[in-house]
Design a protein that fits this description.
Helices cover about 70% and strands about 0% of the residues. By secondary structure, the chain is mainly α. The protein has one domain (about 5-285): Farnesyl Diphosphate Synthase (Orthogonal Bundle). Strands 1-2 form a two-stranded antiparallel sheet. Helix 2 (about 30-40) packs across helix 6, helix 3 (about 50-60) crosses helix 9 (about 175-200) and helix 10 packs antiparallel against helix 11. The longest helix is centred in the last third of the chain and has 28 residues, at about 205-235.
């Protein structure tokens, strides 16, 4: 199976499982908020983070079924962050993936609550999995550590912290160390959490988890720098500091290639590393 075939297959798995979460959620007082949550969840997301989580688990254990609730939770967290990013008080975007943003369809108040709803539902799903699927103390510990990894990456020391730096730096010149911190938190944190939590659920040891952290950070940073390059190539108006504020395009492309190689090197000791090896190159070198 080619990389794209496998990605498409896993996207279908994630979509089907997400749909199940919203079964029988109509005809009650919360119908509108569930409608708004579903709207943003199913606007054509690539499902990269849950896919990385599932394949990381599979690479370690040989299967990924027990990691599905955590993969769904991660996608919900990612989607909630996009809903809030698009709000008038944040990036004030009218479209996301070619469709009107949540607040344009449902109004700002419902959009805020739909983001809140997705974040909270993500924790409900993970906690339910920990309670109901832990067969012994070992399962309980693995699931709890995966929960902690995802929670930390989503919080003020992770994605939210990166977003704060992004907001406060709007219209200002920041130094390269602050930019790197923002990238590591805002973009790389959830990608790192995906592969690390997947590995934890799969039973990875401490040394393997360390390698997965390196992989996740390399892919996350490379993904963001590649975004900067694509923005420049499309001649978009950039008002914020980016990697290209400190480095010429050629140097930026060299950095992306270096991160791609480091990501590949970090997982070479895993037996079933083909997917993570190939998708790291695909994500960091994509054309859109």
């Amino acid at each position: 199976m080619s990389l794209m075939d496998e990605i498409n297959n896993l996207q279908s798995v994630v979509d089907n499982e997400l749909s199940k979460v919203f079964t029988n959620k109509t005809g009650n007082y919360q119908e509108k908020i569930f409608e708004a949550m579903k709207y943003s969840l199913f606007t054509g997301g690539k499902r990269i983070r849950p896919i990385l989580l599932l394949k990381s688990c599979e690479m370690v254990k040989g299967s990924y079924e027990e990691a599905i609730p955590f993969a769904l939770a991660l996608e919900m967290i990612h989607t909630y962050s996009l809903i809030h990013d698009d709000l008038p008080s944040m990036d004030n975007d009218d479209f996301r993936r070619g469709k009107p943003t949540n607040h344009k369809v449902f109004g700002e108040a419902i959009a805020i609550l739909s983001g809140d709803g997705l974040l909270n539902l993500s924790y409900e799903i993970m906690v339910e999995s920990i309670i109901n699927k832990s067969k012994d103390k070992n399962d309980y510990n693995r699931y709890l550590l995966a929960f902690k990894e995802i929670s930390n990456a989503s919080g003020v020391e992770g994605m939210i912290g990166g977003q704060v730096v992004d907001i406060l730096s709007d219209g200002k010149i920041i130094d390269s160390s602050e930019l790197k911190y923002m990238y590591k938190c805002k973009t790389a944190a959830l990608i790192r959490a995906a592969v690390v939590s997947g590995g934890i659920i799969g039973g990875a040891n401490n040394e393997e988890i360390k390698k997965l952290k390196t992989y996740g950070e390399c892919v996350g940073l490379g993904y963001q720098i590649r975004d900067d390059i694509l923005d420049m190539d499309e001649d978009r108006k950039i008002s914020k500091t980016t990697y290209l504020s400190f480095n010429p395009p050629g140097k930026a492309k060299e950095k992306v290639e270096s991160l791609s190689k480091e990501a590949k090197e970090s997982v070479k000791s895993f037996k079933n590393n083909k997917f993570l090896d190939e998708i790291s190159y695909y994500l960091i070198n994509r054309n859109k």
